[in-house]
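To close the section, here is one more complete example, presented without commentary so you can practise reading it yourself. The ligand is zinc ion.
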Amino acid sequence: MATKVKDPVCNMEIDPSQAAASQEHEGQTFYFCSHGCHDTFRKDPHRYGHPGEHHGEHGGHMHS
Ligand SMILES: [Zn+2]
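Output:
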């Protein structure tokens, strides 16, 4: 049984074996539902690369 992971860009839960793309960041592997989410992550990995602690950081409101 596969463990679901969260796409850090759109917060969708996905199966890693069905992810469109993956990316390592600071020793952690992130998975993405689409290449668009992967591109978004690569442009600004620090915005998305810290799950659970991105609240109010960087002055952005990108998580709606
Ligand atoms: Zn996505």
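Once you have examined the tokens, check your reading against these statements. The longest strand covers residues 21-25. The mean pLDDT is 84.
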